[in-house]
Design a protein that fits this description.
The structure holds two protein chains of two kinds. By secondary structure, chain A is an alpha+beta fold. Chain A has helices at 53-65, 162-177, 219-238, 284-293, 298-307, 313-320, 323-335, 339-356, 368-380, 385-398, 402-409, 417-430, 432-439, 446-456, 463-476; strands spanning 3-14, 69-70, 73-74, 77-80, 90-93, 100-109, 112-125, 129-133, 138-142, 149-155, 191-201, 211-216, 246-251, 256-262, 272-273, 280-281. An eleven-stranded mixed β-sheet of chain B has the order 1-3-2-4-6-5-10-11-9-7-8. In chain B, 37% of the residues lie in helices and 12% in strands. The chains are: A alpha+beta, B alpha/beta.
């Protein structure tokens, strides 16, 4: 039997707003437990939620970027269930009127771009976090995360393989990262993913019984869990066993999925409209303004970098991976219109420096002007390629300008004929056999002499000039 | 006359003339509590330590200061003071914040003097479901004071408080005010901030004043009203000085008499008292007109669907994790977490709370939502439309507050349906969000007070004060004082 895999994904995205969604507490990751809390996010009796407008605008922004239709009527609903990390006993979410619905994004596949439909995208509050201590058999609650604005993005069951699911996640993350609403960092939990998966005999339209997979901490884990699950479900069907609708947890260490709860233990969330927040309608003007403020999509940039700037698709792909880098690239090209050269300097030394220095992209202080100045200086022969790279590294960590570093370290290339001639003479004296070889017609050996001279000058000599001088000396003899 | 038997506006006059020291009012009220609360049991906690922040200096320095203490229902949060909703499950809970109404009182130089008894989580009409035991009606100690704000109404009636705050979800201010012979007002939904009011049913709850007369009611409502940035459901409607609305003139006003509210179950003495009140207002120049509120018969059912649904969700937070009661799970149980929830909620909630949580959970459950909760919301809209139509024809509506005077303790406690029906005339104001007032309009032959209910359109509290004050000034009821 040939099976077809059907996958739908639910992604949770935390917003990086200054404050939480329904109170004024700082929305920061990594603070000491229970230090960013107040009566509202702790759900203390008598406290009431007040909606954070920035969170609402971010949600509209995300929904628009995912090509969703927008519900301008904003109503929140209560999702009722008991868990110690949920201090009110309900989560304020959107059930009936998600902010966005019926959107899509295009993902790259081997057979060309494929459309993945976004079923709904809604705004809600995050819950706290439980910390289990096995040693003394206790569980503690950290409420700092309670009330972090969260957007849930749910696809239709449009993906047909774990690889497609992986590609969707990569594309989604890339697009979201351009919106500047979240750091999209899976390690911090800013981006989380659950997956629904079922299989069916190829050609059948009806969906098979699905399993919901949770607890995947990376895109790779999502792919691995889905791959495992496809095999598990296939084996069961081939054995004639029935697949049960259930929620399963991915166990990273054992690389398997395990039952968490069955359908009969599924919650009845008893959704109803949140009476503490009055429904309202967002002005069409506001939505139009947000639409206008949307940045150019990475897909668009990818096309434009190839068509207008002449990059090949690999280079264009590298340039769009980070919104900050794409912007930086464009600024540099506007100052120094040699796209390929700028691209090489970015994808090589700059990205290397950023990774080595572990510099967050949004904290890159290097200006496009200083960066293109280095390229210019190398092109002019004022400094060597190597020196240029060293200066760049120094700039990234020290924040100094290129000129300052050149002056401080005496790095400017030596082009003075008298100084260089002394070095050349020394080198020729030390390598008489090589000189003879060149005179005998083995001109390729001249590179060795240039290298030796460079070494003597500690890299500061202008190699072009050296070449010229060595030629002159040897032919004079 | 002892100070505690005076009204707030009388005391305020004395303070301004420097004849009365604010501190003396407190000692007088405390004396009143000391004398009678062992019988009435209006308070669950009395705070006799905190001095009145408003000394004579405060009054001199602050124009408009009202340094008169207030009794507070035990579901309104007071910073660092135990606030329990008269429930075991909240025992020991001390909120680290003040309700907005408390802040407003403190800003005026007033302060809470103690916390009053109530039905557990405001679930009831007799103050008998309190975990502290019942409050007694000061007019007849074998009767209930009404509820759920029975403690506040009894305290004011027994001169154990100058005035008080209560909360009203389906009649919880007006019904006890009626039973105890005092004035009680449920403001328009959104008039008063709910921040710090421990929620029963969020879309119906309002905090309001319980006072000895209309003037005090206007004074207290003026203090607590207004839009609150901490409560999204509070409305940005201008707050006026309601004492300016105490106008003794109803000439030319049209007052509606809804035929559906004068039904068979109404006690004949109540019927007579209300008819006489209508005559008084007629003589003052009001025009009466029969009106119809056709969806009245669905009010109680609609109310108990919506109120219990919201309550079931609002009470979910009492889960033993952060505060209040915690019962340890039995170690033999499979799921310790669920057992902790079960043990705690089993012991922490009384029967009526459990009943309402179950009713509300049921009506929100998948498969029942459309038939109950959703339909309830639709009927609620129809009930609201009844009033919208009615207020095109009339300026105010008059009904009895309750079908009967106060009933006996234990009479209805085991008959929830009979208990629910005692709210039959007050519930519609909560469902439709309109303001409604109860004020005394006579006594039964057994000496129990009877209440008159006046309703007006949203944010027209001024109309309530105008009609109520005109009636009050023409009758002796508000001057009747209990001798305990």
């Amino acid at each position: 039997m040939i099976f077809e895999t059907v996958i739908g994904l639910e992604v949770h995205l935390q917003f990086g707003t200054k404050t939480k969604i329904f109170c004024g507490c700082a929305n920061e990751f990594g603070k000491a437990p229970n230090t960013s809390v107040c009566p509202v996010c702790l759900g203390l009796p008598g406290s009431l939620p007040v909606l954070n407008q920035t969170a609402l605008h971010y949600a509209i922004k995300v929904a628009l970027a995912l090509n969703c239709k927008i519900n301008s009527y904003i109503q929140f609903d209560r999702k009722n269930y008991y868990y110690p990390d949920l201090p009110k006993g309900y989560q304020i979410s959107q059930f009936k009127y998600p902010i966005g619905h019926d959107g899509f994004i295009m993902i790259p596949t081997e057979k060309g771009p494929k459309k993945i439909c976004i079923h709904r995208a809604h705004l809600e509050e995050d819950a706290g976090k439980l910390i289990h201590n096995a040693q003394d058999n206790t569980s503690l609650v950290n409420y700092n995360r309670c009330g972090t604005p969260l957007m849930e993005i749910v696809t239709d069951p449009d993906m047909r393989s774990p690889q497609e699911a992986y590609d969707y996640l990569q594309t989604l993350k890339l697009n979201l990262s351009y919106l500047n609403v979240s750091d999209c960092d899976m390690e911090k939990g800013s981006l989380r993913c659950d997956a629904n998966i079922s299989i069916r005999p190829k050609g059948r339209r009806a969906l098979g019984v699905k399993a919901e997979l949770k607890n995947m901490n990376s895109f790779k884990a999502v792919k691995a869990a889905l791959t495992y699950e496809v095999k598990r479900q296939q084996k069961m069907i081939l054995k004639g066993q029935k697949i049960l609708q259930e929620t399963r947890l991915w166990n990273e260490d054992k690389a398997i999925t395990l039952t968490m709860r069955g359908k009969e233990e599924a919650h009845d969330y008893r959704y109803f409209p949140e009476p503490d927040l009055v429904p309202f309608t967002v002005d069409q003007d506001v939505i139009a303004q947000i639409q206008e403020s949307l940045p150019e999509s990475p897909q668009n940039k990818f096309e434009r970098f190839q068509n207008d700037l002449g990059l090949n698709s690999y280079d264009a792909g590298v340039m769009i991976q980070e919104a900050a880098i794409a912007d930086f690239f464009e600024k540099c090209v506007s100052l120094y219109p040699q796209a390929k050269k700028v691209c090489n300097w970015i994808s090589g030394p700059l990205l290397q420096g950023i990774h080595e220095g572990k510099i967050p992209y949004d904290q890159l202080t290097l200006s496009a002007k200083s960066f293109t100045d280095i390229i210019q200086k190398v092109d002019n022969g004022d400094i060597s390629n190597l020196t240029g790279k060293d200066i760049l590294k120094d700039m990234l960590t020290s924040g100094k300008t290129a000129d300052e570093i050149i002056k401080e370290k005496g790095l400017s290339q030596v082009s003075d004929d008298d100084i260089l001639m002394n070095i050349v003479d020394e080198v020729l004296k030390e390598n008489e056999t090589v000189v003879q070889q060149i005179k005998d017609g083995k001109t390729g050996a001249i590179g060795f002499l240039i290298g030796s001279a460079m070494k003597k000058s500690k890299g500061k000599a202008n190699p072009k000039k050296l070449n010229e001088l060595i030629h002159r000396r040897i032919s004079h003899d | 006359m002892p100070l505690n038997e005076s009204t707030a506006h009388e005391l305020l006059g004395g303070i301004l003339k420097k004849e009365i020291q604010p501190q003396k009012i407190i000692s007088s009220v405390l004396e009143g509590i000391h004398k009678t609360d062992s019988q009435v049991k209006a308070y669950v906690r009395v705070d006799d330590n905190t001095p009145l922040q408003s000394s004579a200096d405060f009054v001199n320095d602050n124009k408009g200061a009202i340094p008169i203490p207030v009794a507070i229902k035990d579901n309104i949060c007071i910073h660092s003071h135990e606030t329990t909703c008269a429930s075991h499950i909240l025992k020991g809970f001390k909120p680290p914040y003040n309700a907005t109404v408390i802040e407003k009182l403190l800003n005026k130089g007033s302060r809470p003097l103690g916390q009053t008894n109530m039905d557990e989580f405001a679930f009831g009409s007799s103050t008998e479901t309190s975990c502290y035991g019942p409050t007694h009606n000061p007019w007849n100690l074998s009767c209930v004071p009404g509820g759920s704000s029975g403690g506040s109404a009894a305290a004011v009636a027994a001169h154990e408080a100058i005035w008080a705050l209560g909360s009203d979800t389906g009649g919880s201010i007006r019904q006890p005010a009626s039973f105890c012979g005092v004035v009680g007002l449920k403001p328009t939904y959104g008039r008063v901030s709910r921040f710090g009011l421990i929620a029963f049913a969020s879309s119906l709850d309002q905090i309001g004043p319980i006072t000895k007369d209309m003037t005090d009611c206007a004074l207290l409502l003026t203090i607590i009203s207004g839009k609150d940035p901490k409560d999204s459901t509070s409305v940005d409607h201008p707050v006026c000085d309601y004492t300016q609305s105490l106008i003794e003139d109803v000439k030319g006003l049209t007052i509606g008499i809804p035929k559906e509210y004068f039904i068979d179950g109404i006690d004949p003495e109540v019927q007579t008292a209300v008819q006489e009140a209508i005559q008084v207002l007629k003589k003052k120049g009001a025009v009466f007109q029969e009106i119809s509120l056709p969806h009245t018969e669905y009010c109680v059912a609609t109310y108990y669907i919506i109120a219990t649904a919201e309550a079931s969700s609002n009470l979910a937070r009492f889960d033993a994790v952060q505060y209040g009661l915690r019962r340890q799970p039995k170690q033999t149980r499979l799921n310790l977490l669920i057992d902790m929830y079960e043990q705690t909620r089993f012991e922490g909630f009384g029967n009526e709370a459990k009943r309402r949580i179950m009713l509300g959970t049921y009506s929100l459950s998948s498969g029942y939502y459309d038939a109950y909760y959703l339909r309830g919301q639709k009927v609620r809209t129809l009930i609201k439309q009844d009033f919208d139509r009615a207020f095109k024809e009339c300026d105010a509506i008059i009904t009895p507050t309750c079908p009967t005077p106060a009933f006996k303790l234990n009479e209805k406690v085991n008959d929830p349906l009979a208990m629910y029906l005692s709210d039959i005339l007050t519930i519609s104001a909560n469902l439709s969000g309109i303001p409604a007032l109860s004020l005394p309009c006579g006594f039964s032959k057994d000496g129990l007070p009877i209440g008159l209910q006046i309703m007006a359109k949203p944010f027209d509290e001024e109309m309530l004060f105008r009609v109520g004050y005109t009636y009050e000034q023409a009758t002796p009821w508000h001057k009747q004082r209990i001798k305990l």
